[in-house]
Every structure is written in C-alpha cells, then in structure tokens.
Design brief:
- The protein has 21 helices and 2 strands.
- The longest helix has 22 residues.
- The protein has 2 domains: about 60 residues, no CATH class; about 300 residues, ADP-ribosylglycohydrolase fold.
C-alpha cells in the first residue's frame, strides 16, 4: 500500500522546495539525500520507482526533522495581533444589504461554490493542454458548459483520463446533485463548528471537529499532515509546522468561505476567523490565502462589482507578501488587453514552476478569472478551470464569489438546476443537506445584535 501525501520519501523533496522558498540553507541536507540515492523531483516523489527501502525511508524521516530545525531568515508571525499588524487599509465594516437580498446572496454563494466546483471536478489533475483537447474533441471549446464524455474519441480519453473519482458523477450526463468533494466538506464542517462553538471558536475547536467528523482519507496535502500530527499528540497550534511541506499550498484557501459569509462587509473579522482555522495546517502564504478567500466572500455580499470585491479583499493580505504580488498580477492581467490564451500563458510563465495545488498560482488565476469575468458566472468559472491547475478548487472559489455577488436568482438555472438543491458529503449528519437550508443556517450565524455604529461605516 502506498499512502499519498504521507510517505517520508515523498515529503522530503517537497520540503526542500518549501524550505528554499523560505530562504533556508538546506544544501547540505539536500546533498545527503541525493548521495543516498533519493530522488529530488517532487513531481515523481522522493523514492525510486520501486518502493523505498527501509533505510531510505528512515533517512527521509530523519532529514525531515532536521529541516524543521533549520531557522528561516524571517520568522513567521504566530499571533493574530502580529498578523493584524501586517494588514494595511482594511476598511471599516460595510453595511450588508437588507435581509431578503442578503439571504439571496448567501444562497447564491453556496450554489455558486457548488456549481463552480462541479464544473472543474472531472478535469482535476489534467493539464491545460489536455483540457483544451478534450473540449475541442467534444465540440465544447471554448468552455461554456459542464464537461461531457459523449463524443470523446477513445485516443483522447486514453491520453487524458478523467479524474477517477469524479467522472462518475460530474459529467453533464451523470450529474445527480452536488457530489462529495473536499471543497464543500470543509465549508460544511466549519458551518457546524460555528453552530456549536459560536463565533468565538478556536483552533482547538477546528481540530476537534476534524478528528470527530472528517474522514482521514478525505484529507489531502497539508490537512493530512496536520491530521497525522494531531493523532501523534501535537497541539493544534503546532500541527502545521511538523514535517509539513504543504504549508503554503491551497488547502486552507478552500476552507474559509463561510467565515466571509457570516461577516458580510467585515473584512477584518472574516480574515481573523480564517486565520484561526488555517493556522491548524498552514503558514505564510497558505495562511494569507485563507484570509484572502474569506475576505473575497465577505466582500462579495456587499460589493456592487467584482472589481470592488477584489480591491476590498486585497486589504486582507500582507502587502509585501508573494501572495499579494500574485493576486495583483492576476487582477492586472484580467483587466488588461491580452486575450484569454495569452493572459493564461503569462500566468503559467510566472507561476508554472509551482505545484498545481499551490496557493500562489491558483490565487493569481482566481484573481485573473474574477477580474476578467465582469461579474459573469459563466465567464469567470471557465477561466478558472481551463488553466489546468486546481480546477475544482479554483472553480469553486470563483463560483462562490460570483454567486455571492449576483445572488441565487441571477445565477443561470442551467448550472444550478443539476445540483438539485442538495450536497453529498462524507461528513456524518450532513449528507444530502439542502443548499437553500445552508443559506438560512448561515444567515442565522450573522451577529445577532444587528448593525453596530461601527458596522454602519458604509452603506
């Protein structure tokens, strides 16, 4: 049995990449691994094609511990006070719309996230050129609809196989409600944390919810590592930083929409809640990505345009960070004169060296798709999908933002009807939950005291 995202020999090459990104000197450790016969290519994994020997696995485990002990030139902030001090320009809370309009926008956000995720699910892990070949072969280029296998030539299907778990429930011919996906599992789980622990929830509450309700096999990358570390006895505030090479990948960004939804127009509070969750598994740009996603969804419920959403959400990211630069670059491309293909070429030229589920490249793509969409769901989500990175996650985030901006009533029924108003999930007690009920449950978590004078800072 080979367990992905967990074997030491697979983690080590990723950790070397991550450590170097943080400015750590890891040349000596890298050479020891190379000299022992270890593979340094993180795409292949750290072992040779055959299973790693016991000796090589033991060495990888030991070197991962050593890499954790190498100090970064710039230490990471560890408290919300320190993180908050890095954020400039967050506006005073903005008053949300009236109750009926806000409920419609919450409904649109949940449905948009579901449909956007579903749109990208069949082609997760397929690169950009494969997605285009599939679409051209089925007469669906440019992408304007859910994917189909109907009419797909056998040689194209063999060259670019669908995502194994998703092809049975995410092609237009077999969609029967929103299928299970980690991009929906986490928002659902976080909704329940908020319902039980309240708006003052802690990182410990998130950790306990994972262990109680989240199947370990439905965690990936940094979340799987944090899960392992919790079971190994590490505290929730330690779990992200122990043998975790995925701490700047996209996992935390996909978890935090609900914190924006229960804080419409309150960018600072949405970001604080996102940080409280994300610190369980992520650091640096992984944290900033989670805060940015929550800020996007918070802004989407009060803004008048997608450009306003992007401008507001940018204030929840440290100005000097790599993520801030990537988001700005993506948005600039989206607003620029390059055609879609040339702009996506530019994104790949800038960020194609990163793993396809890294935060930086997918955030840049998300910003590009949002900026270019003009607020149109059917324009923005396809752009997030055809670039060929984390297709379902980028599609979900773009769909969430554009759904929240438009509201459910303005989303195309062609994309929401197949959801059948229900979400399948691996979380106990939530399977088959109704999407419109999720909107009502989310609305029930809004501050019960109404708009304080501070929250009335802008209408």
């Amino acid at each position: 049995m080979r367990l992905t995202w967990a074997q030491p020999e697979d983690l080590l090459p990723h950790e070397i990449v991550q450590a170097r990104a943080e400015g750590k000197d890891v040349d000596a450790i890298t050479e020891r691994w190379r000299a022992a016969g270890g593979d340094l290519d993180p795409v292949r994994g750290g072992a040779t094609p055959d299973a790693a020997s016991d000796e090589l696995r033991a060495l990888a485990r030991a070197l991962l511990v050593e890499l954790d002990d190498v100090a970064a030139p710039v230490p990471d902030p560890t408290t919300w006070r320190d993180v908050r001090a890095l954020l400039d320009g967050i506006p005073a809370p903005i008053a949300p719309p009236g109750d009926a309009a806000l409920l419609d926008r919450l409904h649109g956000a949940w449905a948009g996230r579901s449909a956007g995720c579903l749109w990208g699910k069949p082609v997760e892990k397929i690169p950009r050129e494969g997605i285009e070949e599939i679409l051209r072969a089925t007469g669906r280029w440019p992408l304007t609809d859910y994917f189909t296998a109907q009419g797909l030539p056998a040689d194209v299907a063999a060259r670019w196989p669908w995502n194994r778990r998703s092809s049975v429930n995410s092609l237009v011919e077999n969609i029967d409600g929103m299928p299970e996906d980690d991009d929906l599992n986490y928002p659902l789980l976080n909704l329940r944390v908020l319902e039980t622990a309240g708006r003052g929830f802690t990182t410990d509450d998130i950790a306990q919810a994972w262990l109680a309700d989240l199947p370990a096999g439905r965690t990936f990358t940094a979340e799987r590592i944090a899960y392992r570390n919790l079971l190994d006895g590490y505290r929730p505030d330690e779990a992200a930083r122990v043998r975790n090479p995925f701490r700047e990948w996209i996992g935390a960004l996909i978890r935090t929409d609900v914190y924006g939804w229960i804080n419409p127009g309150d960018i600072a509070e949405a970001a604080r809640m996102a940080w409280t969750d994300a610190r369980l598994s992520h650091a640096r740009n992984g944290l900033w990505g989670a805060m940015w996603a929550a800020a996007l969804t918070s802004a989407s419920l009060v803004a008048a345009s997608v450009d306003e959403v992007l401008d507001l959400a940018a204030t929840a990211v440290p100005a000097g960070s790599e993520l801030a630069a990537a988001i700005a670059h993506g948005a600039e491309l989206g607003r620029g004169d390059l055609d879609d293909a040339a702009a996506i070429d530019e994104l790949h030229a800038a960020y194609g060296h990163l793993h396809w589920v890294h935060t930086i490249n997918n955030a840049a793509l998300t910003a590009f798709a949002l900026a270019r969409s003009g607020g149109d769901f059917t324009r923005g989500v396809p752009l997030a999908v055809i670039a060929g990175w984390d297709t379902d996650s980028a599609g979900a985030t773009v769909g969430s933002v554009l759904g929240g901006l438009a509201g459910f009533e303005l989303l195309p029924a062609h994309f929401t009807d197949p959801l059948q108003n229900r979400i399948t999930t691996s979380l106990p007690g939530l399977d088959g939950v109704a999407i419109d009920d999720l909107a009502r449950r989310t609305a029930a978590l809004l501050p019960t005291h109404g708009l304080t004078p501070e929250r009335q800072g802008r209408s």
